């Protein structure tokens, strides 16, 4: 992998989070992400998705399904990032907490 490809891979969480924040602020019609910010259940809709995705991660791991584990993990991380944006937290807040742990 080239250095540019490595940099793109490393920046993907920042780019995804920036898109999530943009969808939160702009609320474009037809956007799944925007719909999470305006859902009639409020943040509970996102919390339910986190629970669902966590269960799917567990099941994929239990079944030793690597492809499904990666896909479901991506879904879980995405919904977690949406929750952070809902709570006015950032990827940098998450990074700082992880850094403080080791």
Attribute tags:
globular; single chain; hydrolase; 0% strand; mainly alpha; Helix Hairpins; cytoplasm; 6 helices; 102 residues
Can you describe what's shown?
This protein has 102 residues and is mostly helical. The chain has one domain (3-100): MazG-like (Helix Hairpins). It has six helices and no strands. It has helices at residues 3-10, 12-26, 32-38, 43-62, 66-86, 91-100. α2 (12-26) packs across α5 (66-86) and α4 runs antiparallel to α5 (66-86). The longest helix is centred in the C-terminal third of the chain and has 21 residues, at 66-86. The chain is globular. The two termini are 28 Å apart. The model has no long low-confidence stretch (mean pLDDT 94). Belongs to the PRA-PH family. Its EC number is 3.6.1.31. Pathway: Amino-acid biosynthesis; L-histidine biosynthesis; L-histidine from 5-phospho-alpha-D-ribose 1-diphosphate: step 2/9.
Summarize the helix and strand pattern as letters: HHHHHH
- CATH class category label: Mainly Alpha
Name the shape in a single word.
globular
Rg calc? 15 Å
* Beta fraction: under 5%
EC number: 3.6.1.31
Family: Belongs to the PRA-PH family.
Protein name: Phosphoribosyl-ATP pyrophosphatase
GO molecular function: ATP binding; phosphoribosyl-ATP diphosphatase activity
